[in-house]
Queue: 2 jobs
Job 1
Amino acid sequence: MDFGFEGFDNSDFETELEEFEVKKVRKFDRMWKIGEGGSIAFSTIYDDRILFSCADKHVYCADIKTGREIWRFRTGKIVMSKPVVKNDVVYFGSYDGKFYAVDVNSGKELWKFNAGSETFIGSCVSDDTVFFGCRNGYLYALSFNGKEKWRFRTGEEIVSVPIVHETRIFIGSFDSNFYCIDTKNGKEIWRFRTGDCIHVDWPPLINENKIHFASFDNYLYSVDIDTGKEVWRFRTGRYGNSSSPVLYNNVIYYGSRDGILFALTLDGKEIWRFKAGGMIEGKPCAHDDRIYFGAEDGNMYCLDMNGKEIWRFRTSAAIYDSPKIHDGILYFGSWDCHLYAIKLNGEELWRFNTSSNVIAPAPPAYDSFKMEIMKSGLAEDVKTTGRYKKSKEEIISLSDYNVKSDYATTNEYKQKSDYDTQWVMFEGILNEEELTCLSNLADSSPRTLMLN
């Protein structure tokens, strides 16, 4: 993220940032504090329809060609679970503690299962079983009629999408472990321990007998799928990880919460990186030698295979959804209460408006982190003179996006938007007038910016 303030040289400012480090100071719980609104979390494509979950308590089904609503299904609370469809049945969980099965054609409920706590993210279906994790720490296995087959308990809440490979299911937990479990009986086969909680919004990548997943300890891991032994790890940044990588032409693409999209070799070596204007949570989409991904700055980006930006399409709020391409059209949901269909040149075709235009409230992206002074001399100045107030230390909380690399690729222009996610770390630290001066907001209407 570019913090070049107009009107003065910020080189000294950037130097001072090196004297600070980011530390996670409390448990990450942003997802449990999301409020009600029309914001779209995740979407999925099934035949000629697109289904998406929403913070207005609904799951929607719309015609993929026209964006016309076919049906909507209401739950008791907000839905942050990606719909999964198998054999014309839609599966998803809700914050009301229930897990639902709904007919994809009529939108009518087939059954619901009382999981006892919130379901965030999605489920997976394999053979005759539906798998999903909950805030109560359980991984559930249900039959297609909604009856429980088994449950496996981890040490803390599950905020990760499971994936099945052959007769094993893999899932991460907030207890910092990544588990391999037998799909037939729910028995643990192995576990791999990371340095922090595992929060994965999309299914991990499995390739050549290795599974790739991320942790809030700031690493992307590659682990042997049979033994649970680490193959390699790649350091991403300072604010944790919550997405999953995608493989395209033997290159791994991964977006971090620091707002950086990485291109890596199969053995975890960096090829290039691209800095977006905000956190990346959605899984990238690779298609016809282009990489598409959304960010919390409200932009959908299109890059070439060398990490050069081709265009960006701007919405008026964050994009947490992963883009999907169907018949040459790119689809994704935005936190601005719209689902978008755009051409692969960035031109909008249509948008779908949910039941509310009120954006669902959520805590700042990095409020579990803070900056700490590293230089002992500077720290002494703070103690003895009070020259740096506590609030001013925290002002630098989006400090170092200048991760050194010979392969660094940067945006060729600054992004201006009225969506103020890029200033979320300043909330509660600066006053309203100072925030207004920093953001320099512009017209918020969605548009595409082309680069030559």
Job 2
Amino acid sequence: MTTLLAILLLAIGLATGFFRSLATTAPPYLHSGWRPIHGILKRRWRDSRVVLLTLLACGFPISVAFRLTVNGWQIGNRMGTFVFIGVGLVVAVSFIHFWQGRASRGWQRTAPLAALAVIVMGGLTAASLEPIRGTYKVASDAQSIERMGIETSLWTREWLGPGNRFTGDRVNRLLLAGYGRQDVRTKINRGVYAARAFRRDKLGSDDFYALARSDLDFLLVDLRLTTAPPVLGFYFEPWEPQQGTRLSAAELLKFNDVKDVTRTYDNGYLIIYDIRGLHGEP
């Protein structure tokens, strides 16, 4: 509710401050009615930075719309950080020139402060499924990033070297790429996504062939994935076929019985399998 109220207040601020923000940079002789906007449309302004930031604020409703979609929420989440630079300017102009006016008193002073407090809290609540960080959660993006996964990724960079071809679940791929500097892959082979190899109790002939024909060096298995269903609905990719279905330990540990696959790292929860032997590599 706080997030929705903050978005509503921002929408009101943008609606009442957009044209006023543009008018602040219009030439002085255009000072009444819609004349400043006509001047801006004719490219008559004093400060291009104000115009740029005001137009940038138009990206805020677009970012909100993206965050309501499955495939676009990542784009919307990242857009919000940048467009809010322009939103801050437009909302500030709205408060000063529309809501407070020249002689503000009473509610005109307190209401903007209360609105700003709600907007700040809305930013905190919208930043994550749980604004206050708790314990590790399965497939929950920020809530899944913790010290154990980071240390494992750092270990790969120190002992295996950067640039190895890895695959695993989505969160650990991000950690391997960021902290381990590894070359992470979402696919095992052409048209074969990682979820297919991890999602079965036994490695079928087709999956074995895909791994053998791939150029992957290592697989990272996280046994913590078996402790709960994925918070976001998927472990590997949003389009995985068994989305929402809980993984089992048998599915993840089946690589123990695959010939030429060795376990090169194991801390009790995170396991790294070396599959270079499947390609005939030492």
